[in-house]
Amino acid sequence: MGKILLFNKPYGVLTQFTSPEGQPTLADYIPLPGVYAAGRLDADSEGLVVLTDDGAVQARISHPRHKLTKTYWAQVDGIPDDDALARLRRGLDLGDFRTRPCQARLIAEPALLWPRHPPIRYRKAIPTAWLEIAIAEGKNRQVRRMTAKVGHPTLRLIRWAVGGWTLADLPPGAWRLLADDELNRGFSTFS
Questions:
Q1: Peptide bond preceding 118: is omega within 30 degrees of 0, i.e. cis?
Q2: At residue 96, what are phi and psi to the nearest 5 degrees?
Q3: I need a surface site. Which of 8, 39, 57, 94 has the fewest CB within 10 A?
């Protein structure tokens, strides 16, 4: 198995190594040549990006047929009720595809949370809540589209885990190579 590294992608960074518009990219943080992201995160999402120099490992991490669970923390407008959570768990018709069943639950604001720059908008009259959503697929802007579909648009989205790998002890903008004993841990799932 090749090299695998974990990166805590800050808000606004593109999950690629070049940008025609001069936006921040992985190249601004990761000086290792020959590694590529196994999956993407939108520029306005934060959190765990797994990179590798091994194409087979990249496919095993990112391709939906392997059903590797990705766990997200989503701060949403309003407080989802039991019905909204049940709809998320069952799967939703988003028009161009139907999401698979997933895990979704309300959580307290994560203790490991870092400030986001810029901060999310704050509205005194509308409360926010945090959800933990674990999916085994990853279509474009899927979690954001799911929460919006049940009436609770996402304000902040953080990918906390990919399989058994997490952001624990990895501040925004930091990366680390996995030790040999950690390599297979990521291929475990929580479903």
A1: yes
A2: -90, -10
A3: 94
Instruction: Tell me 27's DSSP state.
Output: G
Give 17's DSSP letter.
S
User: Which domain CATH number covers 105?
Assistant: 3.30.70.1560
Angstrom distance (rounded) from CA 171 to CA 56? 28
Q: What are residue 156's phi and psi, to 5 degrees? A: -145, 135
Residue of 28, 42, 53, 54 marked active site: 42
Task: With CA atoms as reference, report the closest residue to 135 among 95, 100, 111.
Answer: 100
pLDDT tens track for 56-71: 888 888 776 767 899 9
Task: Provide the residue range defining the domain that includes 151.
Answer: 4-187
3-state secondary structure 99-139: CCCCEEEEECCCCCCCCCCCCCCCCCCCCEEEEEEEECCCC
**Model confidence pTM above 0.90:** yes
- Domain count along the chain: 1
